[in-house]
Amino acid sequence: MKKDPKEIKGKIVDHRRVTPEYYVLKIQAPEIALSARPGQFIMVRLDDLHDPLLRRPFSFSRILPSKKKPGGGLAEGGFEVCYQVVGRGTARMTRLRKGERVDILGPLGRGFWREEGVERQLLIGGGIGIAPLLPWAEELAGKKGSAKGGAKEIRVEILLGGKNSDRVLGVREIKKLGLEPQIATEDGSLGLPGMVTDLLERELLSKSHKSTAIYACGPMPMLARVAQVAEQFDVPCQVLLESRMACGVGACLGCAVKIRAEGKDQMEPTSAPQGGLCGSEEEPEKSLREEMAVRISGAPFFRYGRVCKEGPVFRAQEILWE
Ligand SMILES: Cc1cc2nc3c(=O)[nH]c(=O)nc-3n(C[C@H](O)[C@H](O)[C@H](O)COP(=O)(O)OP(=O)(O)OC[C@H]3O[C@@H](n4cnc5c(N)ncnc54)[C@H](O)[C@@H]3O)c2cc1C
Ligand code: FES
Question: What is 278-304 written as a DSSP string?
């Protein structure tokens, strides 16, 4: 059953800089941790930041499960987010102190789901996009050898990339899971010199790519390339998209991306959303999709999909990559 997101004041229990580029914020929030899934996200509001008043979205980089107390209520539980400073909101976040409380809404969106019947789960992350893959790697690695419907051995492999060694995170955490990450950096300061997508191609070419599923997160050009490679090798692929967000709950269309609208060959073009309030959370998903199917001269039919509601994890072939 789908659980509603909670709005809470989470207590900061740890906040540290993990590389010159990245920070990790650990928040105690048992109500959110109880139903959080890898690939889902939270929206953080920084009370004194009025410009703009919007919350900022961050993925779970670690989920610390909540435990039910014998007498009722929840003990412990929380999560970590790993973030990179890119603007006002994230710069303000660096000043948050242990013991402070932050306004959080979550868990939100659709996280990763397990592709069944595959023997190799291949995770590929670029830069800060590695963060949401960490709890997913933990979950998949924990299920090694216990595939539903049989005792099939499941291999979890992880490919990490970044501009340089400071932009590659999670190596220690991944090793703790008993996994050996393959790494590529653009400047060659860690792992092989090159792009992480080169590693992906090499992996798929060198081993049998049958019975493989890909899960990816990173910058858009990287994801577009991963989607291309997955299609070329006919491998199922899930991608976590990071678009700019306003409401985070499906109401404003601020996060819309173009999604292929299969079977819409006969539809008349309609106008694209302008980013205003054109839907509400209660609006049936289907009618919104139908209403928004669009075609621009000869290009594939598409509709606008809300990253915060229908994603942020999508099947790669659903996305209209441009
Ligand atoms: C579902 C989801 C999960 C995310 N998870 C993480 C995470 O785990 N760690 C993390 O560091 N970041 C994550 N992001 C991105 C993060 O939300 C933005 O970096 C943050 O909102 C920027 O806020 P700001 O006020 O510092 O920057 P702003 O001042 O708002 O913008 C500064 C610059 O960053 C760019 N920018 C802002 N938001 C985004 C975005 N979503 N994607 C690409 N560029 C953007 C702007 O175009 C601008 O150039 C996630 C985004 C989404 C949608
Ligand atoms: S951010 Fe408002 S609909 Fe997604």
Answer: ---TTS-HHHHHHHT-B--TTSPPEEE
